[in-house]
Amino acid sequence: MTPSLSQQQPQLLLVDDDVQLLESLQQWLGSLGYGVHGARDAEEAQAQLRTRRFDLVLTDLRLGTGDGFEVLRATKQLQPDVPVLFLTGYGTVETAVEAIRQGAFDFLTKPIIDQELELAISRALTQRQVLEENKNLRQQLDLRYGLENIIGHHPSMQRVFDLIQSVADTRTTVLITGESGTGKSMVARAIHRLSPRRNKPFVEVACGALPDTLLESELFGHVAGAFTGATTDKQGKFAQADGGTIFLDEISTASPSLQVKLLRVLQEFEFEPLGGTKTCRVDVRVILATNDDLEELVREGKFRQDLYYRINVINIHLPPLRERASDIPLLARHFLRQICEESGRKIVDFTDEVITALQRYHWPGNVRELHNVVERAVILAKGDYITLAELPEAITAQAPVAASTSAQKQSLKQALEDPERHIIRQALEAHNWNRTLTAKALGINRTTLYKKMKRLGLLPSKK
């Protein structure tokens, strides 16, 4: 059974003090398509591990000087992701158990059948590939849901960033408030990704999307027969999030009876499944969110006061987009790069008229609406720049008519200015709008840069 090889040839380190057997195995494994490197003792194996990357280590238990356990420890220290496979003629159950306990992938005894060794190697390499893919996936999650993906230079957003970093390492309950579409789910995920729980589950529950009975079952699980249709036991979201983070969105919609159960979970981290009597205990970090005024709901008797005080330990309030209009160009360009990368489109930037229109709009749907508008514009765009023609009428209706005309019929002067404006803006953004550093990077003096910024409409507006 010849293994199907990936894009790169798997590299194996074979350690055996029997020179004849070592050469024979090297030749045979090489014929199967592997890159095989030999070592005759633990010291030589360590030297190779320091200078070359391997995908799998195969070692004899007894070596001339040292043993296979030294090779195992060296591998775990120098290349911890690489699996180690023991091949030995002196195997005992106790030795095999100890090898596995110390981190060996498998323990095979000689004489080894060809098919048995091929299968063991294939399994070890497959496991390593899965672990590598999981590592890459976690890195992608960090990029997608990390703090750097929450954009904003406005002082209100800087306070949000400070709070996220302050609470991430703790177990403290966090309440995220703000209008719909401000990014509450993204903030919750950023807290999780920055926390020690980052490699454990992040479980999100939209509380407003389910009726009371189903929501209670969704959160705490149920036992068979708890209600009509409950034919088997079901694990709830709190149990699924054990060791990690649970994010309860739209918490203001929870019924009074469910609020009582939530209060107990938050205080004792214990609950019983719906219809059950066995108490379950979990270790979870709870983050909640709402776009309602919980204080007002408490005054109206619609939300428990004791639960409100329990969840409002740390409150992170996300400002509506209309209150941080200075962040709109940053967000729009961030979404533009992201969407172009995902769709394969190549669009340079927005015209100045578009940026002005975006900043004048009131954004009832907040950041989520801005993302959708940019995505729509990328799909409709016919040139290198997104113009007013690609924006929804609700946004362009607030833009000056002259701006719309100029966007459709650019003069030669404007066409030449667009690339220059884009280059200067990129340099300014790269240097946090520091004119001295930007001028130096562009190879011009500050006065020339100032004049160009004034001519190209890049000077910040005076409020």
Can you give a write-up of this model?
The chain is of the alpha/beta class. Helix content is 49%, strand content 12%. The strands form 4 sheets. The chain has a 5-stranded parallel beta sheet, with helices on both faces. Strands 7-8-11-6-12 form a 5-stranded parallel beta sheet. Helix 13 (328-343) crosses helix 15 and helix 18 (412-430) packs across helix 19. The longest helix is centred in the first third of the chain and has 32 residues, at 114-145. It is flat and about 85 Å long. It starts with 10 loop residues before the first strand and ends in an 8-residue tail after the last helix.
CATH topology of the largest domain: Rossmann fold
Helix content: 40-55%
Reported CATH architecture of the largest domain: 3-Layer(aba) Sandwich
Poorly predicted residue ranges? 1-7, 401-409
SSE class? alpha/beta
First-to-last CA distance: 73 Å
